[in-house]
């Protein structure tokens, strides 16, 4: 298969900074589009992968799965896009498209393994996939999204991961007018969860460790802010919530949040992957028919639904634009929660 070289930014090992490098992209096959990347959001998962926090990272690791850009080439079978169109790519670039999950538009749960935009198996040119910290990407048209034209393009980028990851559980657990939703953690995912839950008509509360984020949270749409380290504040919302979207990236005690769920309420973990400590107390679960659940990004149709909803409701991410060369500093700042509320890379800087 013919390939071409593009500039990218990636990590050579788990301990190294990200540096400029060259990677190969395939020439478009009949079903592919080639996209010139204009902006790429910076997700905490990028950092987890670059630093091998979850194990299984392949190097060089070129992260980035909040991609927006312009189509520069289309394959001969491409009907959904034309050269010059705006396009988005999120966390997925392929799946089997034939299993039960794929047929239900749940490609993220593909039974044969969906292919991540980075750190996935590249079945076209071998090796592993490289993400959006690069000049161009080539993707099957079925995994490319239409971008609403009325929104600020750079601020749309984070919708492709932070947006869909919070939208999917809000939709699955049928959030709408009258729902009481809480969001744990005000970062990239958390600020999108607030905006989207509010857009769906819910009453929204933020749980945060950071009192200084209170004013911002209210501006983003939160009706209330509860400081999770203050036990009196936690007691004041006992039994209140129908759905909690928990975006905290690291191990944490979820027991205090379970007591704030209403009967039939669900605590949805989207942030932390791994075993929880301390042990989960099942008493409040059983006595209140409560659930603890997880959720992974969202399918392609659902991502389009979310983008269209954002277009109609004028919802975008609050972003801080950076140059590609600033990425290592941005990772350090993200670890300190020092970002309002998503870094987006201006890819022209590469
Ligand atoms: P982020 O911007 O860094 O935000 C995380 C927020 O969690 C912080 O702003 C902070 O909010 C809170 N927090 C951070 N460290 C904490 C700690 N040690 N204890 C308690 N709270 C803490 O990260 P993000 O990009 O939103 O990503 C969040 C997580 O979701 C990451 O682990 C990422 O890999 C994961 N993720 C999952 C999916 C999925 O499909 N399930 C998709 C994308 C990302 P406060 O200061 O308000 O407390
Ligand atoms: Zn992400």
Write the layout of secondary structure elements.
Elements: E1 3-11, E2 18-26, E3 32-41, H1 44-50, E4 67-74, E5 86-89, E6 92-94, H2 100-103, E7 115-116, E8 136-140, H3 153-156, H4 162-172, E9 180-184, H5 188-199, E10 203-208, H6 214-220, E11 224-227, H7 231-235, E12 241-246, H8 255-258, E13 261-269, H9 283-287, E14 291-294, H10 300-313, E15 319-323, H11 327-335, E16 342-346
Parallel strand pairs: 9-10, 9-12, 10-11, 12-13, 13-14, 15-16
Antiparallel strand pairs: 1-2, 3-4, 3-8, 3-16, 4-5, 6-7
Helix pairs in contact: 4-5, 4-10
Short description:
The chain is of the alpha/beta class and about 350 residues long. Helices cover about 25% and strands about 25% of the residues. It folds into two domains: about 5-160 and about 320-350, Medium-chain alcohol dehydrogenases, catalytic domain (Quinone Oxidoreductase, Chain A, domain 1, Alpha-Beta Complex); about 160-295, Rossmann fold.
């Amino acid at each position: 298969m013919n390939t071409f070289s593009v500039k990218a930014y990636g990590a050579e090992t788990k301990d190294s900074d990200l540096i400029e490098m060259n990677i190969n992209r395939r020439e478009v096959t009949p079903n592919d589009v080639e996209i010139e990347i204009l902006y790429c959001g910076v997700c905490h998962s990028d950092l987890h992968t670059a630093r091998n926090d979850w194990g299984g990272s392949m190097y060089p690791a070129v992260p980035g799965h909040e991609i927006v850009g312009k189509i520069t080439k289309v394959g001969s079978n491409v009907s959904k896009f034309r050269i010059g169109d705006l396009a988005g790519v999120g966390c997925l670039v392929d799946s089997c498209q034939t299993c039960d999950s794929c047929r239900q538009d749940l490609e993220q749960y593909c039974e044969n393994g969906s292919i991540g935009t980075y750190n996935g198996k590249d079945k076209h040119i071998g090796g592993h996939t490289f993400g959006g910290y690069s000049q161009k990407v080539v993707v099957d048209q079925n995994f490319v999204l239409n971008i609403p034209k009325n929104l600020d393009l750079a601020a749309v980028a984070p919708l492709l991961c932070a947006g869909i990851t919070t939208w999917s559980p809000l939709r699955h657990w049928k959030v709408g007018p009258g729902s009481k939703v809480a969001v744990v953690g005000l970062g990239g995912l958390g600020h999108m969860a607030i905006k989207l839950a509010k857009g769906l008509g819910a009453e929204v509360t933020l749980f945060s460790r950071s009192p200084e984020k209170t004013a911002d949270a209210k501006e983003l749409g939160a009706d209330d802010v509860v400081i999770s380290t203050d036990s009196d504040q936690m007691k004041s919302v006992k039994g209140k919530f129908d759905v909690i979207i928990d975006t905290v990236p690291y191990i944490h005690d979820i027991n205090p949040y379970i007591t704030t769920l209403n009967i039939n309420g669900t605590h949805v973990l989207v942030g932390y992957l791994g075993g929880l400590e301390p042990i989960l107390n099942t008493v409040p679960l059983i006595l209140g028919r409560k659930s603890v659940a997880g959720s992974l990004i969202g399918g392609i149709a659902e991502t389009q639904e979310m983008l269209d909803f954002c277009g109609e409701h004028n919802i975008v991410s609050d972003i801080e634009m950076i140059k590609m060369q600033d990425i290592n500093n941005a990772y350090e700042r993200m670890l300190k929660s020092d970002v309002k509320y998503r870094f987006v890379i201006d890819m022209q800087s590469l």
